[in-house]
Design goal:
This protein is of the alpha+beta class. The protein has 2 domains: 174 residues, Aminopeptidase (3-Layer(aba) Sandwich), CATH 3.40.630.30; 164 residues, Aminopeptidase (3-Layer(aba) Sandwich). 38% of the residues lie in helices and 27% in strands. Strand 5, helix 3 and strand 6 form a beta-alpha-beta unit.
Amino acid sequence: MVDSLDDDQKPVYQVHPLRDPRWAELVDRHPHSSVFHTVSWLRALNRTYGYHLLAFTTSPPGVRLENALVFCRVTSWITGRRLISLPFSDHCDPLLSTSDEHLFIAALEQSLHQEELSYVEIRPKQPFTGPTSFFHSAQSYCFHQIDLRPDLATLYSKFHTSSTQRKIRRAERESLVCEVGRSQVLLDSFWKLLLITRRRQQVPPQPKNWFHNLIDCFGNALQIRVAFKDQQPVASLVTIRHKDSLVYKYGCSDTRFHNLGGTHLLFWRAIQDAKRDGLRVFDLGRSDCDNPGLITFKDRWGSDRSMLTYSRFSAAPPSGTLGLSFRESAGRIAKGMVPYLPDRILQLVGSALYRHIA
């Protein structure tokens, strides 16, 4: 059923993107859509975390969707009620024109008060601003992407000589074997490395069924890439293809084998595959601004760096929102506990916490 939110100029409707066949068509043709707008990503969120999905649009029922702003409604007894566009997404641009922004801001303000939400958060590539006292900047991140249009030789020449290029050559000398696919063997190898990595980072892993659902929902568009040394998994990436872009979403490795260059070889092979398939962009995703190591790693691939600044709407200026406070508190607790938890308990903690974090 479609609900209408009244506006002085034009009504704004709510639609369900998994039930409305117009949604996939909008994502296919809109120039600002990303992998995070797709039915596959939305379905994986719904299956794994039970989030309710909705999208705002000015297009009436029965006509082609011309614009939309998609959300998950997150309801948590720990972090409160809010609309997020979208959970666990690096970026999610509003699929609308600048002239429509005031209509959607009015609809968001109405939902904020009617549903008694803590806040509404949007995660655009470009800052989403508007004439409203309810708008606040939220967190900012570094964002990297590689322009894949130059030929492979030119791309390789832009890699950092003494780090990236050297690591690729080392991996090739070590005869690392790179496998690509979605098999249970590759998923198990990725998961083993993910547990090692998350423990090293002192945070719980995502629920394992999240990755099962991503594989099931994306099909051939998702690839698990694993580098092996003598049948031992040493590094792994998860990439997802959308339109002319390859999106790097997850990566993990075993530090005992970092000197072999497995991660660098996987990135290079991903770039080569993307070029072979005619893709134009390698989206390396966001990095926390206080993580200089990861930022430097992405810089050294000759990537373009920009800033992502999320936009948040709330009834009052944030003095430390409940959601953010919970993440910070959980992070401090995790750093003390994670190194000592057995794998099984660590997985249970991750499965219990992630739906509240969003």
